Amino acid sequence: MTTSQLHTLVLSALKACGVESPEVATGLQTRSPLTGENLIQVEETSIEQARAAIERAQEAFLIWRDVPAPVRGGVVKRWGELLTEHKRDLAILVQAEAGKSLSEAEGEVQEMIDICDFAVGQSRMLYGKTMPSERPGHRLMETWHPIGVVGIISAFNFPVAVYSWNTALALVCGDTVVWKPSELCALSAMGAHQLLARAVADTGAPADIHQLVVAGRDVGNVLVEDPRVALVSATGSTRMGREVGPRVAERFGRCLLELGGNNAAIVAPSADLDLALRGIVFAAAGTAGQRCTTMRRLFVHESVVEELMPRIVDAYRTLTIGDPRDESVLVGPLINRASFEGMQGSIAKAVEQGGEVLVGGQRVLEDDAPEAFYVEPTVIRMPAQTEVVREETFAPILYVMTYSDLDQAIELHNAVPQGLSSAIFTTDQAEAEVFISASGSDCGIANVNIGTSGAEIGGAFGGEKETGGGRESGSDSWKAYMRRATNTINYSGELPLAQGVKFL
Description:
Blueprint: H1 3-17, E1 23-31, E2 38-42, H2 47-64, H3 69-85, H4 87-98, H5 102-122, E3 130-131, E4 138-146, E5 149-153, H6 161-172, E6 176-180, H7 186-203, E7 210-212, H8 217-225, E8 229-235, H9 238-250, E9 254-258, E10 263-267, H10 273-285, E11 295-301, H11 305-317, H12 337-352, E12 356-359, E13 363-364, E14 374-375, E15 378-381, H13 387-390, E16 397-403, H14 406-414, E17 418-419, E18 421-425, H15 429-435, E19 445-448, E20 460-461, E21 464-465, E22 472-473, E23 482-490
Parallel strand pairs: 5-6, 5-8, 6-7, 8-9, 10-11, 10-18, 11-16, 15-16, 18-19
Antiparallel strand pairs: 1-2, 3-4, 4-23, 12-15, 13-14, 17-21, 20-22
Subunit structure: Homotetramer.
GO molecular function: aldehyde dehydrogenase (NAD+) activity
Family: Belongs to the aldehyde dehydrogenase family.
């Protein structure tokens, strides 16, 4: 497919989502990593327009917070219906801008549909507790209330899914949303936003409960610094989190941070190696290593490493690399040149620090697409967990090391600054239990006999340490978007003080 054909396909998908004639003469230039060439120039939000969007969202919040939560859930239900209807259209936009296979792009939209289902149910389950009072004729209870405007800053690698986790829950909780997507994926954002705008109109909800600002870092700073934004939910690098967190805290706002991941798996002596092989290769090479949950480190027991490693290398050599519009392709492009250069720099450092490249590492298809960056997923055998291994490189590099006992493996596993996702492959129940116990993995996600990537919306998603500590999606993550109030109701006709205090 030529760039011209891709341009036509993208315009058609945008129109199907309800976005009419987005092209402008000057503005934000979008690009496709599939070809490395420009797609569509769209209007860029100014700082003044971003502040006005926050003001509109704040005014809408004053109405939206008093709408009953199950009614608020109706908007999200309708959004889910529209996402289902336009799943392929939105997936085409995700593929064009993020470089995913259509299967993965449709899977991302399916995550949006799933979180809508989850949030609709949650709209009837925003429970508070009732507690016994020490005073007769009194009742203690807690109630949960909306917090206000939620600012969402999302990343390119999941341009719509992670945003939807936040948005669906924030809306049913009674908050309003201002979304700044990655400027690398503005078209996907426009499609998702327009479908939500249609859901809002179809259900008669306040028109301004959702705002989209399409711009770069300067507009992101507006969300971070504006005191009207009660919660900033930001997905990105640890460096970004170090900048965002203190600035939001300085104004006593809330932060929900999803930052770096340096995810690892342990392969135990008892592991089913066939199952481990499939789990490792997908987690390490899928999405060209550009998932926050991508497997980047592998600790293999010394008794099975010589059997497993040739199988991993052989599997890597069978991976089809290229334009993922070809359904036979498994590995698409890196997002841009900076990602490619970062990958090459990390490979060079690994070799300097004693590593041996077992497979991959080269750029391919350069003659066919000189401005696109297709690479071979790489496996590097490392003698130890050196400095480069402790750093996250957002590319398909898997560092392999050996261990002799489980305590050593867990110590190595935890000896990095990041703490997002983890896995162990074992058929030993005791080993599995240790890995997910308090003395095991220190990550927010600890899996047994599956890889590190591939989260379901029913479980809260997030990590510890430099990953930021935030939780999105399932479980009780709705609480991040609400404030808790403790209420004491006195129906006794008397006024006894707590703790038996006497005053009058």
